[in-house]
Amino acid sequence: MINYNGRKFVSVENTANGEVSSKTFFEYKQEGNILSATYSGGEIVKGTLIGIVKDNGSLQFRYNHVNKKNEIRGGQCYSTPESLPDGRIRLYEKWKWTDTDQSEGESIIEEVK
User: Fold this and answer.
1) Helix (H, G, I), strand (E, B) or coil at 19
2) Which of 61, 67, 99, 109 is the most exposed place for a label (fewest CB within 10 A)?
3) Rg for the chain (alpha carbons), in Å?
4) Cα separation, 54 vs 34, whole angstroms
5) Residue of 109, 89, 112, 111 whose CA lies nearest to 11
């Protein structure tokens, strides 16, 4: 199992209906198979996520944040990891807003050393 504790990530790609950008940084924590994180930057003032790390290293979590428009946004996400040659992790994410906007999207975040 991949241990995400203490790892930091930044967004490198996102669909247009997402609010995460290359200015958004994530700080992950892991206790057992429970994943949590805080994130901020770009359009996002402050965000949190909580979820589960599966045996294969994939992630299932819910996220909520407050954006610069002072809106509370939230959704769910499934992430599939890829180990990069330099030892960093890249996550391929499929997400869906669960607030008034029920749209879906995809993004990629990469670990920052």
Assistant:
1) coil
2) 99
3) 13
4) 9
5) 109
Residue 1, pLDDT > 80, answer: no
Q: In angstroms, rounded to a whole number, what is the distance separating the alpha carbons of residues 67 and 73?
A: 7
The full DSSP string for 61-92 is EEEEEEETTS-EEEEEEEEEEEE-TTS-EEEE
Chain mean pLDDT for the chain = 96
- Could you identify the residue written with the tokens 């909520």? 64
Q: Give the pair of three-digit tokens for residue 19.
A: 């609010």
Asked if 41 contacts 25 with a C-beta cutoff of 8 angstroms, the reply is yes
Sequence length of the chain is 113
Q: pLDDT tens-digit profile of 59-108?
A: 999 999 999 999 999 999 999 999 999 999 999 999 999 998 999 999 99
Please tell me the distance from the alpha carbon of residue 94 to that of residue 74, in angstroms, as a whole number: 14
- In the block, tokens 């890829």 appear at 82
DSSP for residue 3: -
